[in-house]
Design brief:
Layout lengths: L7 E2 L5 E2 L5 E6 L3 H5 L8 E5 L9 H15 L5 E6 L7 H8 L6 E4 L5 H17 L8 E6 L2 H5 L1 H5 L5 E6 L1 H8 L11 H13 L3 E4 L8 H14 L3 E4 L5 H8 L3 H19 L5 E4 L2 E4 H26 L1
Parallel strand pairs: 3-4, 3-10, 4-5, 5-6, 6-7, 7-8, 8-9, 9-10
Antiparallel strand pairs: 1-2, 11-12
Helix pairs in contact: 2-3, 9-10, 11-12
Amino acid sequence: MGTDLKSVLNMKGETIMAVMRSVFYVPGNNEKMVGKAPEFPADIITLDLEDSVPPAEKAKARECVRENLKFAGTGGSKVYSRINNWETLMTNDDLEAIVHEGLSGVCLAKTGEADNVKRLDWKLEELERRRGLKVGSIAIQLLIETAKGMINAYASATASPRVNSLIFGAVDYCKDMRVKLTSEAVEQTYGRFYTAVAARAAGCVAIDCPFVDFKNVEAFEASVMQGRQMGYEGRMLIHPSQIEPSHKLYMPSADDIEWATGVVKIFEEEGIAKGAAAVSFKGKMVDTPVYENARQILATMKEIAEMEALRNKK
């Protein structure tokens, strides 16, 4: 089975999501950084057109991103681009510039409501048809970073079948809430939990907010593990040193893989094959939800292996 964004189905026909452990951002107007994109082993390289690009540099950034879509992915990463939200009146120009071969997805900054997503879906299809791209081939990722966006997160996530992931944007969320961003992150608790819940309710991947103190490895790892318990499966990254730790921390452990392999084997052989709804494995009962969780772990590892094999060929 391939590594399309929504390619693995569980027993209910629901989708098991793709791997997005690391979403690394590169300013679209920084030609030097864009030129190094293939060197960054992130699952997703996001060429940014929004906050990391000054207003006077937007046109330059669009041109740079368009010219480097294929190149940026030569290291094995999928290539996304963060676009300005519709309220800025720059979204259409962003899309006209960057929707070309080599682009796997767009991240809509400051997503406010479902209509924003529907409008984006329509524009992407129009451009795909006009430029001979496969309709539906460009995914949508939503950046949830305002109070309005938070309240409407689930509705936005279900507004288009292209939506595959939600990112919690802590900095702008705190700004919109008129609270101070702190290292304790108490002020982020509701938004961080709710974005993850909305993502999973919509069948999407939840991607955690950036961790700005990139030199504090211990704190970063603690934050990732806390986020994993909230349901996050990847992280938006702002420094290349965070890529490898993210891959390690968001990957199932050896014990998890061994457990999942055993669960799938015994449930299929002793449960499904014999018409039983539950079986015993190492002294614990295994039913359908446990089996599906085990399949998710193995599907994740399979996709990681395929990604790494592809990267090693580059």
